[in-house]
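Morning, I've got a small favour to ask if you have a moment. I owe you a coffee for this, so here goes:

…
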Amino acid sequence: MRDRRVLLLWTGFALAAVVSVGLVARRPDHLSDLHIYYGALTDLRAGRPLYGYVAKNGGPFTYPPFAALVLAPITVLPEPALGVLWLLLTVVAVVAIAVPVGGVLAPERSRRPLAVAAVATALMLSAPVQSNLRFGQVSIFIVLLALLDGMGVVPPRWRGVLVGLTAAIKLTPLLFVAYFLVSGRYRDAGRAAAAFLVAAGVAAAVLPAESWTYWTGTVLQTSRIGDLASLGNQSLHGMLLRVGVAPATLPLLWAALVGVICAVALLRARQLTGLRRPGHAAVLVGCATVAASPVSWTHHQIWPVLAAMLLVGASGVARRMAGAALLVAMVVSLGAALGPVSARPGVQFLLENARALGVGALCLVGFGGVAVTATRAHRRATARRAWLRVGVAAAATLAFFAVQPLPAGADPTFKAYALDDVANPRYFFVCRGAAECDAYGGDAAVSFGTAVEPTKVRVNGVVSGQVARLAYYSAPGGAPRAIPLLDAYPGSRIFSFRAATMTHGRLVAYAADGRPIATYDDELAAAFRAHR
């Protein structure tokens, strides 16, 4: 029976891998990050600046210069062949991660094949792995190397080296150096620091100009990485940006919260190491890197998937339920899947930020008592009470967020559209062409229509000549969002944007002298209610 389940799981894994790779190949933007690596390194070989490269989609090369040395061999292959190889290596990396994690879940050798197959299948179905496949990312390889080193799988004399090298490619694994120190692995910490410095030194010797550019400025330019307030950034920093924390307060608040989260996670990781749970400890430190980094896109979030599976395999109803909830959040976009429920602003904010909140909670709780094995009799005696506690906690959390309005300035799905988007009828739907848009606008300062989707509202309209600037306020007291006015057609200016909800929204049109000439709030709320 066990062999049959193992075979069934590996069949599911293979099917998911084949379908995923096939879907990636059909996307017009497939392997876009791999294309950036390839283009930037091709430019570098031709003598052009590494950090001056910008791909057609606007993406620059954002990694340290040592990453360019490691990735340099990819330019030997034609890009289409490289894409096929990269996808295959990503699938292999999923299996390579599943092997040690499966060993943690099933210390008994007889159960290990089933655990490895289950971990590999869950990983393949998760959003982070799908994102790695879609973009052709290095993140999954960084996680694999840091996991093996953090767990102590590599030979003792080399422990710490992989963390140092991966940190030289992508900085976030540096937190593992702190973990080595607090857990008493001083030699590992020394080797990690030495490997990082040597790698950076080699890159400086081979690429001096690029190294100077990166370490004296580019490393701090997080804006190069993209819109940090977008929902894809499920770090604590990204969530604070979506909450609408004032720019003057944000750095101090973020630093304080990151300090608390990392300190608690590292102390719990040290305790888990002492309890001979290095797998749990390494995954916990990895989750702390996701929470603490200023930027944690979906493809960075493999660590929480591993944490969720370790919780599911733990003893105790509460931990298993928490693990299942986190695993669901890492596989499914809750904001989209629970659209009818998430129309409430507070609930939507909870669902859209479920991954950031879940990772933060995991870092603070630190797997709870996962390292403590409860007796069977004790589990039976407490199971009913545990289910009750889980149900009450879940209901209380949902009720709390249900009555919350969106924080001032917060709007997790906000986006204003540009001239390149005008051809998309989903974004620009009120008029097509100069004559139609002129007729639609009429004499009003702003004429607009709305379209409501499960997790967002789209507003598209036309402005008159007296409007010089258009701004949208997500909630009272929030910062304004500038709405571009687009000269798409002769004699007409149009605009389009999306937001989470219009319940508290306000659209304001300004004249050239800064005077507000028209305000729309009740109209937005009424349109939203009518569509619901």
About this structure: Residues 79-105 form the longest helix (27 residues). The beta strands are 415-416, 446-452, 457-463, 469-473, 480-483, 486-489, 492-499, 506-510, 516-520.
